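Limitations

Structures in this collection are predictions, not experimental determinations, and the ligand pose is part of the prediction. Treat each record accordingly. The example that follows, with iron/sulfur cluster as the small molecule, is included so readers can see exactly what is and is not provided: the inputs are given verbatim, and the output is the predicted complex.
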Amino acid sequence: MGEGTTDGTDGNPASTGERSDTTSLADAEAIAQVREALLSWYRSDHRDFPWRRTDDPYEILVSEVMSQQTQLGRVIEAWTDFTERWPTVEALAAADRSAVVGFWSEHRLGYNNRAKYLHEAAGQVLAEFDGEFPQDPSGLRELQGVGPYTANAVASFAFDNGEAVVDTNVKRVLYRAFSVPDEKQAFEESARELMPAGESSAWNNAIMELGGTACEKTPRCDEAACPWRGWCDAYASGDFSAPDVPAQTTFEGSRRQFRGRVVDVLRSHDALALDDLGPRVRVDYAPEGTYGREWLRDLAEDLATDGLVDVERHGSRAETVVRLRR
Ligand code: SF4
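Predicted complex:
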C-alpha cells in the first residue's frame, strides 16, 4: 500500500469493512461482502511490482523463482535486467547455462540451482510443450524446479487458473480475521472457500498484499485501512497473536491498542467529543453498543489517570470531550 492511505473513515462500506449483520463466513452474503471489500481495497491501491503488470507466464515464473529467498526490492532490479537480457522463454532456452548461472550470482539471488532449473524449465517448455506453458498447477509442476507454490502462483497470475494461495502471510490473516484454527487443512479449506471462483489472480494478489502490508506481524489495521476490520475477530478482541506471532493477553492487548489509538487520533484533532472520537478509534464504534460511549469514556479516564489526556465531563456522556494533555 502507498503511504497516502486513509484511515478508512470515508463512509464507503467496502473500504471501511463496515460490520455486516451476519459475520459468519458460513453465510454466503457475508462471504460476498468480505470478498468485495478485499478486492476493492486492493484495486484502489497496491504495491506496483513490474510482474504484476504482466500475464506472461515466462515473466511471472522468473519473478516467482527469484522471489523465493530474495528481498523484493532486489528482485525488482534483477527481474528487470533478466527479462531485458532474455525477454522470452525461447531466448532463455537458447542461452548458455553458465551465463544464466553467472547472472544469478552477480545479482545475489541465492542458490545457483534455481538458475539451472529455470534454464532447464525453459528448454522443457520448448521441447515438451511446443513453446506454450502449461496452464494449470499440475501441468506447471512438471517443469524443473517448479514446486506446488510456484506452480499455483504461475497458474493464478498468468492464467487466472490457480487455487487459493496459503502461505505464511495468508495463514496469519485467516487466523486473525476469522479465527481459523492453526491446522493445514483448516487453512486450505477456508482459503478455498473465500476465493471467488475464477479470480485467482486478483484474489491471491489481494490477500497476499493484505498479509504483506496490513496484517503484518505487527498489524497496521487502521494505518493500512484494512478492509476486514468490520469482520475481524482480532480487531474486535485486540488479540493479534497468530501462528507466527506469540500469544498475548487478549484484554491487555486490546486496552493497549485502543489507548494508543485514542492518543494518535487526538494528536491530529486536539479535542473531540466521544461520538466524534469513537469512530476514529474503532470502525465498529456504536454510541450505545458494547464498544460505545461507556467503553470509550472508561478508556479515556484511564488515560487521564496516566496524565495523557483530559476528560471534560458535561451533562450527558455524549457531551464528554476528550483533549490531549499538552
Ligand atoms: S483488521 Fe488488522 S488483524 Fe484483522 S485482518 Fe485486518 S490487519 Fe489483520
